[in-house]
Design brief:
The chain has a two-stranded antiparallel sheet. The chain is 38% helix and 5% strand. The protein is mainly alpha-helical. The protein contains five helices and two strands; from the N terminus they run ββααααα. The protein has one domain (13-100): BFD-like [2Fe-2S]-binding domain (Arc Repressor Mutant, subunit A), CATH 1.10.10.1100. Bound molecules: FE2/S2 (inorganic) cluster.
Length: 111
């Protein structure tokens, strides 16, 4: 049975996929940083990183480190970028349970 053989010694780190959700490589990130787009939110708008199913949990740190390394800026200077709620995964049961506690229940609301 024939299989695929990858010579790992020929792989460049440019080929590494840093955002698995959006299939963005380190090479793409480096090219955008070199063009002056050196914040996570700018890279997010340009490439979609951080907008996948994991909402950046898998790629944000890697990209932040690459921005810092390439620009020489500290994490404080770069900033973390914008987070959208929910920041952590929430079970649907938790949301529906919260919905049952209706503070307006039994009260008359006039318009
Ligand atoms: S790995 Fe980048 S959004 Fe999921």
């Amino acid at each position: 049975m024939a299989g695929i053989c990858i010579d790992k010694t020929k792989l460049d780190d440019d080929d590494v996929v840093v955002c698995r959700c959006k299939e963005v490589t380190l090479k793409e990130i480096r090219e955008w940083i070199d063009r002056g787009y050196d914040t996570f939110d700018e890279l997010k708008r340009l490439t979609g990183v951080g907008m996948g199913a994991c909402q950046g949990r898998g790629c944000r740190d890697i990209i932040m480190k690459e921005i810092a390394r390439r620009t020489g800026k500290s994490f404080d200077e770069i900033g973390t970028g914008t987070f959208r709620p929910p920041v952590k995964p929430v079970k649907l049961g938790t949301l529906t349970a919260a919905n049952k506690e209706d503070p307006w229940e039994g009260k008359v609301v006039s318009h």
